[in-house]
Automatic annotation (TrEMBL):
This is histidine kinase. It comes from the Bacteria. Gene3D superfamilies: 1.20.5.1930, Histidine kinase-like ATPase, C-terminal domain. It catalyses: ATP + protein L-histidine = ADP + protein N-phospho-L-histidine. Keywords: ATP-binding, Kinase, Membrane, Nucleotide-binding, Phosphoprotein, Transferase, Transmembrane, Transmembrane helix, Two-component regulatory system. The keyword Membrane applies. The lineage of its organism: Bacteria, Bacillati, Actinomycetota, Actinomycetes, Glycomycetales. It comes from Glycomyces algeriensis. The keyword Cell inner membrane does not apply. Residues 194-259 form the Signal transduction histidine kinase subgroup 3 dimerisation and phosphoacceptor domain. PANTHER family: NITRATE/NITRITE SENSOR PROTEIN NARX-RELATED (PTHR24421), NITRATE_NITRITE SENSOR PROTEIN NARQ (PTHR24421:SF10).
Amino acid sequence: MTWGKVRAWTRKHAAIIDVVVAVAFVGLFFLGYFRGDEKHGPPIERVDFAAAVHVAAAATALASLSLRRYWPERLLILDTIVSVAIMVATGYRHPLLIVTWMIVAYTFARTTGRRRVWLVAGACIAAMFVAAGLFGGSGWISPETFGLAAWSIAFVAIGDATRSRRAYIDEVEERARRAEDTREEEARRRVAEERLRIARELHDVVAHHIAVINVQAGAAAHVLQTRPEAVGPALAHIRRAADTVMQELGSVVGVLRADDGGGLDESTEPTRGLARLAELLDSFAAAGLRVEHRQSGTARDLPAVVDLAAYRIVQESLTNAHKYGTGRARLAITYAPDAVRIEVENPIAKDAEPNGSGYGLVGMRERAAATGGTVTAGAEGDRFAVRAELPATAKETP
């Protein structure tokens, strides 16, 4: 059996061990007490009274040592009362009760708050000191009286120091556990945020081009029998859109497979921004969406997170206009001194049935919130409108 298993067994059966130790301790004490010197014992001529004193001391010691883990304060007071009673009756300090008192006092100090320990133990020590001075026969200033008080105080102080040290160790361990839990929670939070960011990026990358492919494939199927010469341009649009999807997916997957495991960040994220707005509008025009673009204010460089958010909001808004609109949309971008405002409106097709997941609108709101901006989207009569305002000096929020 290993030492760890021995310690676990003793902790589990502490009460049994205390009883065995108490019986062995009291038995060995009296064995040495009476065999070592016949003069030991209280100075009492009546043998039956002397025996009663020893029986009372033995019973008190057995109870105190066996049950000290459960009621140390009560047993300490009991030990004190019995010791004082014997001292008053015989003028004799019973050594078994003295040793037992110190053991119980140590247990009491180790398991109880400092203020209560010193209040109760101090009262017990004072009671025994007074009884020893009045009835002990050696006087107030004898070495025995002062020695008894000094050793009693020492055992209480040792128990209190042990309790303080254990409390300090427990606090350190608890702090370490909380710190570990915090690190794990932070890691889980970062993983969840990164998964959300990746999902949002993949949606923005794929949705627009898949919509283009879908429209062009439908157009090709429509004109295949009547105007076969128009199928080629449609297939060319499909091929270019598919190539673009593959390239952008490759960029995202390349970031995910990076050796540093850092995920998507501004240094490695596929570069997108309002500077490439013309290219985005051309792709929509090729897919059959006529966009009326109007810009107010002087275009200028924006913080990377704002520039990317603005681009993705425009892309998602026009994608929805292409899917659920009549083929026309209006885009207005306003560069204000402290913000950039985006408005996208499109007529809603009468036969349009929303069949998307809704993640696109959620992604727009999340991107705007990440910059400290706002975005609203919803139907306004027979039109659908998206309005976003992003701070031009924003930094990404946590």
